[in-house]
Fold:
Amino acid sequence: MTTDGLTLAVSGLTLGLTRDRRARPLVEDLSFGVARGEMLAFVGESGSGKSLTAAAIFGLLPAGVQRIAGSIRVNGSELTTLSERRLRAWRGRDMGLIFQNPLTALSPSVGVQAQIAETYRVHKGGTRDAARARARALLAEVGLKALATGGDSYPHQLSGGMRQRVMIALAAACDPALIVADEPTTALDVLIQAQILDLLARLQRERGLAVVFITHDLRLAARYADRILVLYAGRAVEEGDAAQFFTAPRHPYSRALRDAIPTIPATGGRLTEIPGQPPEPRALPAGCRFAPRCPNVGDDCRRTEPAMTFDGTRFACLHPCAKMS
Ligand SMILES: Nc1ncnc2c1ncn2[C@@H]1O[C@H](COP(=O)(O)OP(=O)(O)OP(=O)(O)O)[C@@H](O)[C@H]1O
Ligand SMILES: [Mg+2]
Structure:
């Protein structure tokens, strides 16, 4: 994979609980890139490694989980070798992280204007007045005009949708190159959800941001993302252009995910379910991890772990679905 010109380039990322080679990693040999002005969606069932990958990019892995191998570059700079102090400068200034629950990221006892202004001043310097003006402009830009004028408000005084807009303003405060949004709208109703994602997509276009959008909801990925990366039990199983992905996914897991999308109006038929559960990291099957649930499974799948191959999209499967389905 060429990393020239990519805002985010992740290569061979492997995360695990121990360096013991017999233990299976939680995320294994993951490679992907995101260009300026592009949105890549991560999709995959719970436990597939989406949040751990996001945490690794920011150097915020939970205690006990370590990066065993792999490179993470933002605008060409390797982040994995930076000291904690230098990485802290990158976070917030060059890359912003948006979580599902903004209350965990916002300080409860500081007004939101003040929080955005402080983030801006820490990274960019300047006077308090200039930082406060910048905070107000950002709040207006994310559609919170009432919070941009007048006195400051505390996070607990705001609705969930307003808080998530504040998080986006905070993440975008220093004009970062990259924003990673980990299920930013899962707790919100569908109308607010669309408003928040429209806002993120607008910033992506207008500011040329690279965005990684992590979601359980393939419909949102279809609507907003340029490219899709499907994760299964810690490995990438397919990556490709979003439009092509939804017309002709090649990996049977991707196709099962796509076919599980509810459509409106309801056809009266039952939704297609994916039988079984993803494997636990401690109990991965030999060969392809999806083999025990796969409709296309052959004997070879239980012996050989398929490598990523390129044929229109990148996918890792010995018996892929037809090119058009
Ligand atoms: N702090 C931790 N300690 C040990 N294992 C962890 C830790 N955090 C995550 N894991 C394991 O790593 C795997 C990937 O977890 P991750 O949180 O990245 O999943 P996810 O794809 O974000 O899932 P979800 O859709 O539920 O948010 C899971 O098997 C999980 O049990
Ligand atoms: Mg997660």
User: Anything to note?
Assistant: The chain has a mean pLDDT of 90.
